[in-house]
TrEMBL record:
It holds the Pfam family BPD_transp_1. SUPFAM superfamilies: MetI-like. It comes from the Bacteria. Keywords: Cell membrane, Membrane, Transmembrane, Transmembrane helix, Transport. Belongs to the binding-protein-dependent transport system permease family. The keyword Glycoprotein does not apply. The gene is dppC_2. GO terms for cellular component: plasma membrane. CDD domains: TM_PBP2. This is Dipeptide transport system permease protein DppC.
Length: 328
């Protein structure tokens, strides 16, 4: 008899958990689907493309050949196959974006969540450091650090590698996310379930990892995507200015080679258009995914399309939002 009474309760609890999980997942909207398809295609091109192209550092071809069957994206001024360089460059830019995004997210978690949860003197110290990073202009700071580190003795091959550029971009790009996470963590620490865990004697780190971080997953995903976009664009900017990874090939270094090789003046559009287009597509695809995640973080964004549809339907039927007759 007891089993018969507890079975419906267990089924109800499981159904509520599934319903709650579905509400926290982003809807398969047009923005989300388009962004996923774009990013998946770019990742596939970056991972599989180098397997089917020639050596990107092979300079044995004729220079500035236009696109053809042998070279679908032509060749560069030095005789490199542009398709091979763009394929390996996409892989390099994605690597920089992923590493820099993860580093920035980790630092944002440390400075934002710890400050928001503990408060007090720790909050003041961490926010002081965060505000200092916020007021310093981002691009000049990245340029100075990249130029200094790349000329530091003892780093060897790491000095001009993609990994070093990714670390520099991650270390300088966490402050904005930390402010957002701090505000959300301060709000969550006042919730009843967090207070109950504290009263029960749970350790602070366990409360953070078990009670607070799971509720920050949509926001963390959005901040990670923003960090990846910032890193991809930042690496392209650094490489265009000659401060990028000379030991690796990225989309930014391809653009830098095109700029120094006067691709625009010589009309070699196939040299600079493809890497620029892929950078734009990466930013667009990740932004679309970020917009879909924003609808989860911000309920107003999630409910706004439905409210707009109801309003348009009411006007077509000649009625107001509350059902009253509209007088023309």
């Amino acid at each position: 008899m007891a089993d018969l009474l507890t079975a419906p309760a267990a089924d109800t609890t499981q159904a509520l958990a599934v319903s709650r999980a579905r509400r926290t997942m982003p809807r398969l909207s047009g923005k989300l689907l388009t962004g996923i398809v774009m990013i998946a295609a770019i990742i596939a091109f970056g991972v599989l493309g180098p397997l089917f192209t020639v050596d990107p550092r092979d300079a044995g071809f004729d220079p500035l050949l236009p696109p053809s069957a042998a070279h679908p994206l032509g060749t560069s001024k030095l005789g490199y196959d542009v398709l091979a360089q763009v394929a390996i460059g996409t892989q390099g830019s994605l690597f920089v974006g992923a590493v820099a995004g993860l580093v920035a997210l980790l630092l944002a978690l440390i400075f934002g969540v710890l400050a928001g949860y503990f408060g007090g003197a720790l909050d003041e110290i961490l926010m002081l450091l965060t505000n200092i990073m916020l007021v310093i202009p981002g691009l000049p700071l990245v340029m100075v650090i990249a130029a200094y580190v790349q000329h530091t003795e003892g780093l060897g091959a790491l000095a001009r590698s993609s990994l070093l550029v990714a670390l520099v971009l991650g270390i300088t790009g966490w402050a904005g996310s930390a402010v957002v996470l701090r505000g959300t963590a301060r709000s969550l620490r006042t919730r009843d379930y967090v207070a109950a865990s504290v009263v029960a004697g749970e350790r602070p780190l366990r409360v953070i990892f078990v009670e607070i971080l799971p509720n920050l997953v949509p926001l963390l995903a959005a901040q990670l995507i923003f960090g990846v976009i910032f890193a991809v664009l930042g690496e392209a900017g650094l490489s265009y200015l000659g401060l990028g990874p000379t030991g690796s090939i990225t989309l930014g270094t391809v653009l830098n080679d095109a700029q120094t090789g006067q691709a625009v003046g010589s009309g070699a559009w196939w040299w600079f258009v493809p890497p620029g287009a892929i950078i734009a597509l990466i930013g667009t695809g990740l932004s679309l995914i970020n917009f879909a995640i924003d609808e989860i973080v911000n309920p107003k964004l999630r409910l706004a399309p439905a409210a707009a549809r109801r309003q348009r339907r009411a006007h077509r039927m000649g009625r107001g939002i509350g059902g009253e007759e509209v007088i023309a």
